Amino acid sequence: VKELGKNNFQFYTPDMNEAVTRKMQMEIGLRKALERKEFRVYYQPQIDVNTGHVIGTEALIRWEHPEWGHMSPADFIPLAEETGLIIPIGEWVLNEACRQNKEWQTQGYPPLRMAVNMSSRQFKQSNLIDTVSNALDLSGLEPQYLELELTESIIQDSKYAITTMQKLKDMGIFLSIDDFGTGYSSLNYLKHFPIDSLKIDQSFTRNMFENTKDAALIHTIITMAHNLELKVIAEGVETEEQLQFLLQRQCNEAQGYLFSRPIPAKEMTGMIKKQYTY
Ligand code: C2E
Ligand code: CA
Ligand code: CA
Ligand code: CA
């Protein structure tokens, strides 16, 4: 309820109407986007900070709408989750990312790990395991070259989460926790969950020199991860100074605009070809 004047209330303002209409139009658009082939997968390299080599890439969805142009995942992924459309969309991304990764291997490049984002709605799907094994079968990709990025939100139902993660782990898939440190969840899960790596959220990286607490947290996350025999990757690395800080604290991998923005597969192929060093 929006307050208009002294005793004047109304439920819908023109602004709200507009927002609702836009959301409905976006939902209609999302429903058609798959068959109209409007989605793309972009790839962002992940760098081994000790060698400077690309060792993996993260698959990030892009939506090119014929009229609205480029739509940011931050705008449509939440709606896709709300409507359940994330299930077919996520499956499409998974299949495409696995196919592309296998294609790079077939072309003779050293194998990379392909990280795919998984929303909690997808993770809770009863046929998740079938969807994932199907993507591996269809593409011929070996499971150790597939990484699933899970957020702390999936941990709400920890019994289900452990069982499902263990099944994925048993298949040989690499599991990481995305946006680590932003989820308010207990650290206790780290000792029970079969995960391989933590991704330090970019909010920490962004402020590491402005806020000494962020720097301290990064250092602490890296130390803790190594004590638990987990790898650590820092996200959102934009400057050489940030990279040096991470190197000194033995962070394993880094990802961010310093190396590359997310790029189409073709450009990524060029980057792999050059085997990018800094
Ligand atoms: P995320 O998984 O945390 O992905 C990292 C985001 O940070 C990406 O935004 C990436 O382009 C951006 N980024 C990478 N390096 C830098 C940097 O150095 N500086 C800054 N400022 N940003 C950087 P993007 O592609 O817009 O994706 C936003 C979010 O949308 C993702 O966050 C993820 O939560 C979601 N998303 C994207 N693709 C998918 C998908 O296929 N499935 C699902 N479920 N979610 C996806
Ligand atoms: Ca991610
Ligand atoms: Ca992230
Ligand atoms: Ca995020």
UniProtKB/TrEMBL annotation:
Residue ranges annotated for the EAL domain, each copy included: 23-276
Entry keyword set: Membrane, Transmembrane, Transmembrane helix
GO cellular component annotations of the record: membrane
Presence of keyword Nucleotide-binding: no
Protein name (Swiss-Prot/TrEMBL): Diguanylate cyclase
Native species: Paenibacillus pectinilyticus
Residues of the full protein shown: 530 to 807 of 812
